[in-house]
UniProtKB/TrEMBL annotation:
This is Bifunctional protein FolD. Gene3D superfamilies: Leucine Dehydrogenase, chain A, domain 1, NAD(P)-binding Rossmann-like Domain. GO terms for biological process: L-histidine biosynthetic process; methionine biosynthetic process; purine nucleotide biosynthetic process; tetrahydrofolate interconversion. Catalyzes the oxidation of 5,10-methylenetetrahydrofolate to 5,10-methenyltetrahydrofolate and then the hydrolysis of 5,10-methenyltetrahydrofolate to 10-formyltetrahydrofolate.
Amino acid sequence: MAKRIDGKAIAADVIGKVTAASAALKAEKDVVPGLAVVIVGDDPASHTYVAAKGRRAKECGFHSVQVTLPAETSQAELEQVVRELNDDPTIHGILVQLPLPAHLDEFPVIQLIRPEKDVDGLSIVNAGKLALGDTKTGLISCTPAGAMVLIRSIHGSDLSGLDAVVIGRSNLFGKPMGQLLLQANATVTMAHSRTADLPEICRRADILIAATGRAEMVKADWVKPGATVIDVGITRIPAPERGEGKTRLIGDVDYAAVEKVAGAITPVPGGVGPMTITMLMANTMIAACRDNGVTVPDF
Ligand SMILES: Nc1nc2c(c(=O)[nH]1)N[C@@H](CN(C=O)c1ccc(C(=O)N[C@@H](CCC(=O)O)C(=O)O)cc1)CN2
């Protein structure tokens, strides 16, 4: 049976380090790290995530700002909010919650965020630094950064000789994940919905990372015995067994079957998910340290 990678416990450990660094910055420079999260519209899942970000930021001792905008907000109004946050010296990190309502174009909004405040790591500057192998001066997208912490807990920081397969090629996850694995010396295959014979490609992987967006798509016979399986999917399904109207989360991996084959596996919930908000706190701390000329701790 595979080792269950406990994302909640690893996230708690990183949050402890961020909280200590935040207290040290206050003591040394009288500076409080500031995080602003912008949310547009009424998507219930997005509101849940944003509320959790605010709570976590406060627990870390941060100044936490939530800008809530109505669904009808125009592109110009949203961009003006980002400009104001860019110019606010108490804010070190800015995040625009995704997805945005359909009438808004996320790309120009994200590119407006100053790279040094882009705690989502989605700006061209931060994505470019990662692509060029600079993991020290930019900011890295939170979910892949968190997945990498989980992978390090199993394999250490040098993945030389290991084959990694990433299913999914989004800017938010798949592309930066591939870059991070490459930077750690893994041999990386980027797979996606148009990849031919996906199960066969996945069977080569020592580290298999599923961000397909399709619930329980990765089956036991896709997995090399002993492989590390990282599940980035989150699908909410009805769970009448828990009571009327109740739901539960499942991932992109058929956990019950795959845990019998894999060497290590992340659960959903409680695997990669808790690392996303944790690495947002770490990125905000990094941004605040850099802004104040303080050595950036290792998270
Ligand atoms: N601007 C961004 N938008 C979005 C991002 C992002 O990184 N930046 N990621 C996702 C949503 N997300 C954070 O925003 C997020 C997803 C999941 C979790 C999490 O803790 N999941 C838990 C389960 C939580 C639950 O019960 O619902 C888990 O998997 O254990 C946190 C944050 C899209 N948008």
